[in-house]
Structures are given as C-alpha cells and as structure tokens.
Amino acid sequence: MKKITSKTFIPIVLSIIIFIALSIFYLSPLMEGKKLKQGDIVNHQGMSKEISDFRNATGDEALWTNRMFGGMPAFQISVLYKTNFISYIDKAIKLWLPHPAGLIFLYLLGFYILLLTLGVDKRLSIVGAIAFAFSSYFFIIIEAGHNSKANAIGYMAPVIAGIILCFRGRYILGGIITLLFLALEINANHIQITYYLMMMVLILGIIELIYALKEKQLKPFFKAVGVMFVALFIAFGANIGNLWTTYEYGKYSTRGKSELTSDKANKTTGLDRDYATDWSYGIPETFSLLIPNIQGGESSYINNDKDALKKVDPKYKEAVAGMSKYWGEQPFTSGPVYAGAIVVFLFMLGLFLVKGRMKWFLLITTVLSILLAWGKHFMPLTDFFFDFIPGYNKFRAVSMIMVIAEFTIPLLAILALKEIFEKPEIIKEKIKYFFISLSLTAGIAFLFWLTPSTFFSFVTENETTEINQQMNTYLQQSPESEVQIKEFFDNIIPNLEIARISIFKSDAIRSFLFIVLGALVVWVYSRKWINKTIFVLSLAGLITLDMFVVDKRYLNNDNFVSKTKMKSTFTPSKADELILKDKELNYRVLNLNNPFNDALTSYYHNSIGGYHGAKLKKYQELIEMRLSEEIKKLISAFSSKTIDTAFVSTFERIPVLNMLNTKYIIYNPEAIPIINDNALGNAWFVDQYKLVANADSEIVALKNFNPAETAIIDKRFENMVSAYKNPKDTASSINLVSYEPNKLEYRTKTTKEQLAVFSEIYYDKGWNVFVDGKKLPYFRANYVLRAMLIPAGDHTLVWKFEPASYYTGEKISLAFNILFILIILGGIYMEVKKIRNKESV
Fold first, then answer.
1. Which residues have a Cβ under 8 Å from the Cβ of 443 and sit 6 or more positions away?
2. CB-based contact 580:571 (threshold 8 Å)
C-alpha cells in the first residue's frame, strides 16, 4: 500500500481552500457586512418570535406557539433539541463560514468526498464538485431561505459515499462515514429531501443485490447492509427527539389523513392529490436541465429583460412588459432546474462510456425523478406512488424530486470525464457515441434556436383566456371603439410571443455554444494536443462560467441588504402599535391584507393566520370550509358605504372568527384596526351542546350556530358529556390570569358543574388540563377547540403542554448521541490503526 504522508493531503487541503474561495467570492457582499435577505427566513423570524422570546427569557423551550393559526406545536418552527450535539458538528463541517457561504461550501465538499470515494482524480473531483454545487435550483432555494433543504441536499453525496464504501467491503470506514453524514442529513430536518435520498439508497441497494446474486457475493452484500442498518439505527436514535415529535405531529398536520369523507378521489392518507401536485414540472419544462430559460425561467415581468422587448412593436411594449417571463405549467416559479449545458452533454456521453452498476443506478434514478416530477402530467405513476409507496403522499411540490436528477446528472458526467481523463483514446474508439451525445444536446439546442415555434407554444391557454376576457370588458365599457379595441388585443399575443421567443432563443444558442466549446475541449484532449492539467482547467473554467452566470440571475448582490435595513423588516405599523397597547391576554388578530399566508402579523400578535407548510390539518380544513367564507363577508362589509352598520351586523354572522377570539381586524396597516365586540374571549360557558355524527357534520354545523350558547361536539366524545344536564350558571366566571406558550392558568368560579369551551386549538398529544392539581379529561368541540366540564366551586385551572415525545425523546437522544460520538471516535482509531499496520508491513 502506498505510504500516507503529509503530501497525500496537500491536494485535499488545496481543494478545500478553493471551495472556501468560491463560496465567499460568489457571496462577496458578506465581506462588506451585508446580510442575505431571504423571504422564508424573514417569515421564520415572524412565526418564531414568541418561541425565541420565551427561550431567551426563561432558557426553556416553547413547544407550542399561539402566534399562528390559533395555536400549533412549535416542533417544525423553532425547537432546540439540547441533547442532540450533531448541530455543532454541522457548523464545524461548514468551517463556521458566514451564512449562506457555509451551504455552498457544503455542496462542494460533500460531492467532492463522493467523487474521491469513486476513485476520481482530485483535480477532476473539483470540477465535479462545481458542476453539482452550482446547479441553479440549489441557489434559488438559498435565495428563498430554504436553508434546511439546502443543508439536507449538501449531505446527500457523502451519505452515498459511505454506502458505496460499505458495498466495497470497507465496512469500518464506510460505516463511520455513513453514520456521520446520515446523522447530519437527518439533523438538517428536511424530511422530504431525506426521503428522496432514501429512495436513491434503495435503488442503489437493489442494483447491488442484483450484482451480488450474479457474482455470488451475497455474504459481503448482507454484511454491508448490516453495517448500514446499524448506522441508520444510531443516526436515527441520535435525532430521535426531532423525529418522534415530527412523526407524532405529522399525523395531525396537513400531511396526515383527513377525517372528512368528501372528495374521496382527491384524498390520500397524506396530502390531497391536487395540493401535492400543484407544483408539477411541465414535460417540455424538463429541457430546462439543458436550457435554463426553456419556458422563461422565473415568474417575473418581461420588463426586467430589456433585450426581450427590442423586437416588440412599440405600441404593445407596455402591455407585453407587464406580463410574466414564465409560461410554464407551474403556478409560478423562482427559476428553473438547470444542471448545466456541458454537464448534460457529458451525462449523455456517460451513458455510452461508463460501464457497470453505477451507470444503471444513475440512469434509473434520473429517469424516475423526472417522471415523478411531472406529477399531474403523468398521473398513472404519481397515483401509484401516492397509493402504494409508503410516505410519498406526505410531501407537496412533487417537482422537488428533481434534486435527484441534479445529483445523478453531474455524477455520471464526471464519471464519463474520469473515463476520458484516464484513457483519452476512448473518444476515438467511441466516436459514434460522442457525436450522438453532441446531437442530443447541442443539436437539440440549435434546432430549438432555429425553429422555436415548431416545438413550443409561447402563450398558455389561461393567458389567452385572460386576454380575451379583458378585451370583452373593454368592449362592454366602450362599444363605440370596437375596431380599435379588437385590433389592440389581437396583437398582444403575437407580440408576447416575440418577446418570449427572444428569451428562449437567447438561452438556446447559449447552451449550444457552451456544449460545442466543452465538446471541443474533450476532442482536443482525446487527440492528446493538451495535457491533463489544461484539460481540467479548461472544463472547470467553462462549467463555472456557464453555471455562475445562470445562478447570478437568481442569487446576486441585489439580494443583500445592510444589517440596519434587515432589522427594519419588522417595524410595527400604526395598526400594530395600537393593538399592542392592549395588555390583556384575551384576543387574536386577523389581517385582511394577507389572511392565511402572513408571518409578519405573527411577529407581534396571536394571529388567525400565519405562514407554515404543515399547519394542523383540521385548521386548514376550517380555513377552506369556514374561515374563507367569513372573511369574504368582512371584506364585503368593508366595501359597503355604511361601513359601521355593515360591520356590526356582519360580526354576528362570523361564528368561527368569534369563537377564535378575533378581537382585532387589520384592513389597512396604517389605519386604526377594527374592534370586534363579538369575540368570545379565551374561554366561556355554554348553555347547551349539540351532538353530531362525525367530522363532516361537525364542520358543517359551524356555519349557522351561536358559539356563545352552543358547543358542537362529535358523537365520539358523547360519553364525556352525556351526564351533563345543568343549564348555564349566569353568575359563573372563567378568566385567564397567567399566560405562557406552554402553560395557561385560569380562575373559575361556578355554583354548579359547567360546560366550558376554550378558544384554544385542540391537540391531545401533549396538552393536559389540571384543576387544583388534579388531571381531568377534556375533549374537542367546534371542530378545532378544546372543551371540558368544570366542577362547581372556585378553582385554579391550568393547561400544560408536556408532550412525552419531546421529553422522553430528549433522554433517548442523549444516550444515542454519546454512543454516536464513541463509535465515530472508535471507528477512526481502528481505521488509523489499520492503515499504520499496513504501512509497517
């Protein structure tokens, strides 16, 4: 065995320095002290404000927050699992680089580790790391603030590296790497990306099994699988706190099964089909892997692309400029999944040059990810996965699975370069396949540029319908100008096509030129007219230039702001300031400007709305079936000329908002908020209850009822109220006297047992109620609220959120984290000892 010296590590250290330099260079405003303003991170700051404030004040975790959607668990918002040490390792691996430079560095480092594992030359591995790391989607999600997703993507490659080492018989080293990076992958806390990684691992395992059967090597195969399962078990255990709470909450979130029985064809055991497939990648849009602006790129105004308007008739420029650059089939998009023109060419070439199991693994996973990304455009496969593949229906935005293609395409591309790098004459031997690959990439790009309208439509059906509707509106308003109006609108679509074709052709010819240049470098190297160093540097330069320029369209210096400007994001409005003067504990706020997709209101107030991808399913159903309708009534009343009278009567016709204690309504951030005197407070006693057959009946009953007098109760809770016969005690009282996110303290005073409804969201996986220290039962009322029988007398009633999944999970996690560290250290010691023993022979 070749002796390991300090010189062995010099290329690796140099590679790391290059990765640091690339990460910082791309994000140069970080060196000026600026911050990246990420939309989702701003939203996260809003939604997590109560949680972070409580943590800073007490040192404890607020496992529940009342700031969003009436109240919800904080597990998927901002909970720290203090017995999990893996987060510290994550920061160390990213070398404590400023955010988000650490994420780009992780993209580069993770893929570099995988390529070294596969025996790729260290110089070529740098090229491969760049090809993977600078895929456009990975930068789009950083700009958006999807940090956990980016983190999880960064750990995909080293996990695969560890698994490959296990299958190659390097059980100790492979086991350590698998354990380390799988624990980090899970800790990244993006279950959807981890799920896609496990899909890849399963496919890789099946292919390895086929080869093991063929080569009669089942014993080493199962030994490798055994090592991997041990690694999975320990990585799982080290992250058990987060995993357990996520699993428990997931069944009650929008990812869980609904109790409602309507629209059965659309429902799954997870998300509804239409919701999960909203963001389905269009079939023609798949060519964005090769040509970024294949369908316009991003959902922004054409006006942002001045070149696109050059050939548009001046009379129609203003109309066209205000339309979207994007004409694909997704509702909207921040940018395409671009894998790199040269990279796709090399991937195609790799299908012919690379042999063995890795090629089949990469080909199968690439094709599967693309087909599944099509979602509603390829429903037979999508339905099969929704109905029969465990866990698949828990995730929305099926287009996200394209991250697999973004992993497999550059990997096979670099494996193709490895073959060429080690044996340049292979191009001469496979010259037919070289030109086939060139035709399937550069040839297609050139053909698209030459005759774009032959292959694509540049205006959607919805846009055509909308333009015709606008024309009809103008015709109704000005029938005397019919000729001029028709002439104007008839010419919008042709001019819109001119602008979009310009956008399309610009990127088509761009990809063509990059592929030709990349192929030329490969050709010249195959003739041995340049050496390996120039070959690597040339490809590195071309690939970097290609992908940097596209990435800069979506994440650039304009996305950075000063620290002062970042802090000003949460400057309270006049409405916020006036509401904050109310120091009582008995109200929620509805912001009519953005009712259900707004985290800014949550920064200051307990909100009816919020911003979260996994709210409680019952609350989402309440939004869809009741709250949306009631909010329309409010908006209609606001538009009334007799606004005061209209609002007074309307407040009596919004029972769900009243039971959710919606005291303040913001209609204009700089105006005085509207006060709803019909809001019912934190808790109240009711005169009666009404039993209904099931969840369907319960949510329907909320349409016309008086929540101050009646509680709607599902029949499954009948045994908990059947003995209650008392009328309401008018002298009774129930008041909230102390508030913490995890603990609510009330004082009650009644002369006889009473039925109380609390304006608190029902979630029985952690909430317990105690009367004078004695735990009592409670049940669900009004579809989403809590209710219970209050005994006669004066009492102290306390609600506590104490989920066993968190507290028990923390103890288990601590034990596994200690075991994790011991195994990693022990494995490193054994591997070093093994190397030294071999060197001494």
1. none
2. no
The helix (run of H) or strand (run of E) holding residue 775 is strand 774-776
Burial per residue of 97-121, b for 16 or more beta-carbon CB atoms within 10 angstroms, e otherwise: beebbbbbbbbbbbbbbbbbbbebb
Query: How far apart (Å, rounded) are the C-alpha atoms in residues 631 and 621?
Result: 15
Query: How does DSSP assign 515-534, residue by residue?
Result: HHHHHHHHHHHHTTSS-HHH
Instruction: Give me the torsion for CA of 565, 566, 569, 572, rounded to 10°.
Output: -80
Q: Tell me: the pLDDT tens digits for 525-554?
A: 999 999 999 999 999 999 999 999 999 999
CA distance from start to end of the chain: 9
Distance, CA of 374 to CA of 385 (rounded, Å): 13
Place of tokens 């999990």: 84
Please provide the size of the chain in residues: 841
CA 814, CA 812: separation in Å to the nearest integer? 5
Cα distance between residue 299 and residue 402, in whole Å: 19
Confidence check: pLDDT of 571 > 90 = no
Task: State yes or no: pLDDT of 835 exceeds 90.
Answer: no
Q: Are 238 and 816 in contact (CB under 8 A)?
A: yes
pLDDT tens digits, one per residue of 734-752:
999 999 999 999 999 999 9
Q: 316-333: per-residue pLDDT in tens? A: 999 999 999 999 999 989
Q: Is the peptide bond before 11 cis (omega within 30 degrees of 0)?
A: no
pTM for the full model?
0.92
Six-digit token pair at 778?
């409670």
Q: CA 134, 138, 139: angle at the middle one, nearest 5?
A: 80
Tell me phi and psi for residue 788, to 5 degrees. Answer: -165, 165
Q: Which amino acid is at 284?
A: P
Residue tagged 């496990």 (tokens):
198
Q: What are phi and psi of 677, to 5 degrees?
A: -75, -10
Do 611 and 640 contact (CB within 8 A), yes or no? no
Preceding omega of 777 cis (within 30 degrees of 0): no
**How many whole angstroms separate alpha carbon 145 and alpha carbon 666?**
27
CA 363/CA 348 separation, integer angstroms = 10
Rounded mean pLDDT of the chain?
A: 92
What Rg, from alpha-carbon coordinates, does the chain have?
30
- What is d(CA 645, CA 162) in angstroms, rounded to the nearest whole number? 69
- CA-nearest of 736, 727, 630, 631 to 681 is 736
3-state SS assignment for residue 662: strand
Least confident of 145-154, 261-270, 413-422, 594-603: 261-270
Mean pLDDT of 73-97: 93
Handedness of CA 93, 96, 99, 100 (dihedral sign): negative
For residue 269, pLDDT over 80 is answered with: no
Question: Contact, 635 vs 592, CB < 8 A?
Answer: yes
CA 343 to CA 359: how far, in whole Å? 15
